[in-house]
Design goal:
Layout lengths: L2 E6 L7 H14 L3 E5 L3 H5 L3 E3 L27 H13 L4 E6 L1 H11 L4 E6 L15 H22 L2 E6 L6 H9 L4 E3 L7 H13 L5 E6 L5 H11 L5 E5 L11 H19 L5 E6 L2 E6 H6 L6 H10 L2
Parallel strand pairs: 1-2, 1-4, 4-5, 5-10, 6-8, 6-9, 7-8
Antiparallel strand pairs: 2-3, 10-11
The protein binds adenosine-5'-diphosphate (ADP).
């Protein structure tokens, strides 16, 4: 292995830059040439590729987003697009490719590996919805961003004795909602993975009012529905309740990565290069119980991740 490439694909996440830096510096440390591919698989098809040296990744460890840009690429899903990408990779004598992204990006990496380009996937998404790993790069930062927002919203909600619904990201998964809800002291956490009972929520608000609580914070995962609709449902049962909604949106995708995400990205980026040097292909890196591991992409795509019910139940116990 002499030349490797790195790209970011799908939705961006804080810590992707830290992972790029780790891939580039580890590669150069071991005497490899490292190529940066721009705009995900688009850059591979259209030859938007630049060699990265050690200083080209200086000063990015602490930055959100991705210096390589990211994109979705429909053309890559076609046989023709895939062939073009493989040709460009061969032209650059790329023996290995590190793909930082989610499940969709791994499907692309798997297809490309069939064309003889060794591929390794890294889990980069704030949603934490990748089954082969306990944590994804960007998740911890997003949770901390939500936590900061909860703290601020709580101040004003307490002053006015209001109920608040905060809608958070996570696509079809409730990890951000669960972790931020638990650590932010939310009264109710609504996740796509667990059925909710609107009457139970209403009872809890009423009980909270009786016990003298100054506010009631509901964290709603976007995978369940919109905050506005949820507020309407509660309003129907409690017409006099002063209820406000906040949709946090894309602030959750940006910001300087936390120490946790920088550490995760640095370790995973370095491991990806080591795996490529060993001739590995078609694998995704994960972390389980604090230990790095790697899993065959097909196996990883078939794995299912379940929400930690112990944590979910804890949110209920601690918010009585
Ligand atoms: P994520 O990687 O975050 O899951 P996407 O699902 O949007 O994001 O996938 C990112 C890119 O990966 C797509 O734009 C496409 O180029 C590639 N990709 C996704 N699914 C496939 C597939 N089934 N086959 C080949 N490439 C795919």
């Amino acid at each position: 292995v002499k030349t490797i490439g790195v790209l970011t694909s799908g939705g961006d996440a804080p810590g992707m830059n830290a992972a790029i830096r780790a891939v580039v510096r580890t590669g150069i440390y071991h005497g490899l040439k490292v190529l940066g591919i721009y705009r995900g698989y688009n850059g591979l098809i259209h030859d938007e590729i630049k060699e990265l040296d050690a200083s080209s990744v200086a000063d990015i460890l602490q930055r959100g987003g991705t210096i390589l840009r990211t994109a979705r690429c429909e053309e890559f899903k076609t046989e023709e697009g895939l062939k073009k990408a493989a040709e460009v990779a061969r032209k650059h004598k790329m023996d290995g490719l590190v793909v930082i992204g989610g499940d969709g990006s791994y499907r692309g990496a798997r297809d490309l590996s069939k064309y003889g380009i060794n591929t390794i996937g890294l889990p980069g998404t704030i949603d934490n919805d990748i089954a082969c790993t306990d944590y994804t790069i960007g998740f911890d930062t997003a949770v901390n961003t939500v936590l900061d927002a909860i703290n601020k919203i709580r101040d004003t909600m307490s002053s006015h004795e209001r109920t608040s619904i905060i809608e958070v990201m996570g696509r079809n998964a409730g990890y951000i909602a669960l972790y931020a809800g638990l650590t932010g002291g939310a009264e109710s956490v609504i996740l796509p993975e667990v059925d909710y009972d609107i009457d139970e929520i209403v009872d809890k608000i009423n009980y909270g009012i009786k016990r003298g609580k100054l506010h009631h914070i509901i964290i709603l995962a976007e995978g369940v529905g919109r905050a506005e609709n949820f507020a309407k449902m509660i309003k129907e049962k409690m017409p006099t309740l002063d209820i406000r909604t906040s949709v946090l949106g894309h602030i959750q995708r940006g910001g300087s990565p936390t120490a946790f995400d920088r550490l995760l990205a640095s370790r995973m980026g370095a491991r990806a290069v080591e795996l490529l040097m060993q001739g590995a292909t078609n694998r995704v890196i994960g972390i389980r119980n604090g230990v790095l591991c790697d899993v065959d992409i097909d196996e990883a795509l078939n794995m299912k991740k379940t929400i930690d019910m112990e944590l979910y139940n804890l949110t209920k116990i601690l918010s009585i």
